[in-house]
Input
Amino acid sequence: MIRFFTSPQNVSSAAIELCAEDAEHIRVLRLRPEEKFIVCDGGGTDYVCRLGSGFGAGCMMAEIVSQYQSVGEPSVVCKVFIAFSKGDRLDYAVQKAVELGAYEIVLFESARCVAVPNDIPKKIKRLQRIAIEAAKQSNRGIIPEVSFGGKLSDIVSKAADNSALAMFFYEGEELLHIREILKQAFPSSVSQQEFNSKAISIITGPEGGFEPNEVTLAQLAGISIVSLGKRILRSETAPIACLTAIMYHTGNL
Output
């Protein structure tokens, strides 16, 4: 079914007020009164709806038929920290990270970033729009927030805090592979409830990789330095590979 997102304050016991943009989308799709669609409150609850009566200037009321907890949310909270990259690489990384189940996406600047936008708020706004569309397409129960965290020195503590596992992916690491650290953090003996209570943070670098002093900075913050294997992945591929491994290992893929 077609999926829309709304704010919780737009939800009443029997109906949901849709914004002008969603109402126009419904008109373009020519939905009939008997056709059902999904409206998610962004907090993990899905409402099966059908068209109600018109409401306000450009808005529309959706009549609630039934509701249930969103099934598209993973059992682990993954916060993804991605270094700025040039062109449309960030577009791809954000879109796929949302599809795979990222809870939050934080962009940052590191020493070897090839390009940092002149207008960061405008870039974030564009990427947030991509996240919204990806969340709709992939049956998510929330819309992951896309934000700018500053320089790497500003985000290492945020990545480490309140995380059961924080990983810094570095092509120079030769000993600790993502497969091994996930086995350590999520052994088969861990219960599903313990899985649900664990948050994971991952940090991936720009086109030029990380400087050695940046690796040291992450280590001092208590973050594990981790390898993704022998091959060097592109900046837009690395966060997707990390998320895929995490989701597969924790039973979310």
Summary: The chain has a mean pLDDT of 90. The chain has two domains: 3-69, 77-249. The chain is about 35% helix and 25% strand. The two ends are 21 Å apart (CA to CA).
